[in-house]
């Protein structure tokens, strides 16, 4: 099978022909149909400090994907091996997305059902072979069966969509004024979810006109931080106090500083964007205005997946807004062009099509 791999420590990747893996105990083999590229893949391909600390080559990358179950390993519950028969078992031919975080099941948080807080989380496509390949083996319990309504493109977006749902649903949104900083694929999906959940004004900022044009299709108000005055836009919207809810999805220090400036007293800010390095913020503002800042990582297993599925299932408009973040598609053989497109920033989500 084809697999896009990091053959050895250092920059670069290789599309290799390697044997198809088989599923082990409580694992399934998935025929991959679509895989999305994300910032993590760019870090791993480029081999920065994060990559050198995380990745033990040789390794196949890729963790945002959708495909079809083609083999069940021993120990996987099936219609034949469980007598409950209530339909939540896996079967051959099932179309699925996959949670890329593998949790230990033994730490305090895992045992309390808070698997997103596992202290030993490892990742598909980073710590074990991933889905930039024709086939991938994953633990059965990481599989998320998808309704036919969710086509392969939408299915491949569930990992970043889950980040957006997890971020957006940290605070009540109905009737609130929401600021999203960063109009990357995840920020755009955050804005779409905030609109879906009945926010009053949803404003999204970015210094890139390309990204803001994509974000505008969600119906959110777009603001270019390079040449537009956010306070003027707020006044134009009839906002007299400040944003009630913030979602920081850029990882950029200036975005977080602006967020703190324009949030109302008592605002709740969810932070998903990963800064490249530590930075200063005005802590006096955080304290005297009693702002709540909460870090958000990954997706809740599997409540975020439920919410993502049922929100998309109930709204054609949300499905189209989410689908709208896909701007580029490549074959596996064009992988270098795909990474180049993703690196350029003149893109939304870049997808590799395997079937
Ligand atoms: N915490 C997690 O579990 C998790 C998971 C996935 C991604 N992330 C992080 O979330 C962020 C969003 O992911 P993405 O794939 O959409 O990233 P992305 O890099 O495509 O988008 C970030 C956007 O922020 C914009 N930006 C830069 N400076 C800004 C500023 N001053 N104000 C407003 N916007 C600004 C950039 O132009 C870019 O469009 C990234 O930082 C990523 O590392 C975190
Ligand atoms: Zn990702
Ligand atoms: Zn754990």
Automatic annotation (TrEMBL):
Its cofactor is Zn(2+). GO terms for molecular function: L-threonine 3-dehydrogenase activity; zinc ion binding. Signal peptide: none annotated. It holds the Pfam family ADH_N. InterPro entries: ADH-like_C, ADH-like_N, ADH_Zn_CS, GroES-like_sf, NAD(P)-bd_dom_sf, Zn_alcohol_dh. Keywords: Metal-binding, Oxidoreductase, Zinc. It comes from the Bacteria. Residues 26-145 form the Alcohol dehydrogenase-like N-terminal domain. Its EC number is 1.1.1.103. Residues 185-308 form the Alcohol dehydrogenase-like C-terminal domain. The keyword Methyltransferase does not apply. PANTHER family: L-THREONINE 3-DEHYDROGENASE. Belongs to the zinc-containing alcohol dehydrogenase family. NCBIfam families: PRK05396.1. This is L-threonine 3-dehydrogenase. It comes from Actinomyces bowdenii.
């Amino acid at each position: 099978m084809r697999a896009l791999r990091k053959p050895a420590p250092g920059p670069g990747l290789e599309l290799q022909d390697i044997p198809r893996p088989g599923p082990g105990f409580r694992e399934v083999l998935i025929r991959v149909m679509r895989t999305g590229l994300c910032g993590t893949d760019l870090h791993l391909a480029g081999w920065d400090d994060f990559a050198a600390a995380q990745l033990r080559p040789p390794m196949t990358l890729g963790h945002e994907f959708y495909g079809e179950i083609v083999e069940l390993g021993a120990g996987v519950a099936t219609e034949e091996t469980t007598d409950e028969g209530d339909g939540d078992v896996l079967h051959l031919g099932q179309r699925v997305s996959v949670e890329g975080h593998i949790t230990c099941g033994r730490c305090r948080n895992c045992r309390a059902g808070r698997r997103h807080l596992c202290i030993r989380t490892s990742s598909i496509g980073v710590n074990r072979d991933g889905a930039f390949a024709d086939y991938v083996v994953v633990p059965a319990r990481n599989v998320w069966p998808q309704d036919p309504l969710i086509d392969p493109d939408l299915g491949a977006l569930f990992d970043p969509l889950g980040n957006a749902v997890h971020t957006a649903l940290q605070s009540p949104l109905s009737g609130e004024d929401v600021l999203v900083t960063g109009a990357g694929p995840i920020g755009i999906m955050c804005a779409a979810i905030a609109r879906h959940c009945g926010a009053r004004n949803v404003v999204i900022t970015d210094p890139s006109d390309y990204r803001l044009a994509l974000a505008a299709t969600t119906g959110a108000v777009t603001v270019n931080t390079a040449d537009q005055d956010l306070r003027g836009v707020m006044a134009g919207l009839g906002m007299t106090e400040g944003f009630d809810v913030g979602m920081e999805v850029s990882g950029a220090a200036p975005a977080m500083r602006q967020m703190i400036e324009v949030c109302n007293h008592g605002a709740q800010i969810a932070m998903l964007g990963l800064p490249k390095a530590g930075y200063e913020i005005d802590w006096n503002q955080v304290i005297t205005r009693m702002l709540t800042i909460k870090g958000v990582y990954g997706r809740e297993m599997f409540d975020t997946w439920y919410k993502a599925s049922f929100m998309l299932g109930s709204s054609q408009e949300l499905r189209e807004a989410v689908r709208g973040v896909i701007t580029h598609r490549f074959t596996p053989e064009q992988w270098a062009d795909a990474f180049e497109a993703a690196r350029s920033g003149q893109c939304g989500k870049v997808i590799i099509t395997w079937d």
